[in-house]
Amino acid sequence: MDMIEVKLIADNLDVNSVLRRINEKAGAYVLFLGRVRNHDRGTKVHKLVYEAYLEMAEKEMRRIAEEAINRFGVLDVFIYHRYGALKVGEETFLVVVTSSHRREAFEACSWIVDQVKSRVPIWKVELTDRGAFWVEGNNLKPI
Which of 34, 48, 98, 101 has the CA that lies 20 to 30 A from 86? Predict the structure, then answer.
């Protein structure tokens, strides 16, 4: 059975629990796993703080998953995004897409990541050596 699962979570991401549930019809799965890096725009990053409008964010993530299935013909879509304060090295964002063939899985996964970043109401504060900043696309706004 095809599956869509979307969640905003405060806890750590459990990649293996998702992989254990992928579709048996799938010949391929593609996984994207984002994490907090220790630098951005030439400055040291100490942590990120994600805030979200939980109900609206999960609804939009579900719409994106449904669109991906219709657009790319993939089987399963799992989208998880963390919220709260995350330290350097912690995982922030997981997308797993399954399909019969690899091309559709790669294309859908990349498209989903871009759509989540542009459409889902999740906001990020970056705490750096230069201070705290709201991150809006490629722009930083001091807090």
Answer: 98
Q: How many domains does the chain have?
A: 1
Q: Which of 4, 6, 11 is nearest to 82 (CA)?
A: 11
Q: Write out pLDDT tens, residues 43-84.
A: 999 999 999 999 999 999 999 999 999 999 999 999 999 999
Dig out the tokens for 60 from the structure.
């939009």
Nearest residue to 16 (alpha-carbon basis) of 4, 28, 2, 33:
33
Under the banding of pLDDT at 50, 70 and 90, the label for residue 23 is confident
Give me the CATH number covering residue 19. Answer: 3.90.1170.40
**How far is 98 from 3, CA to CA, in rounded Å?**
10
What's the domain range around 91?
4-142
Coil, helix or strand at residue 2: coil
pTM here? Answer: 0.94
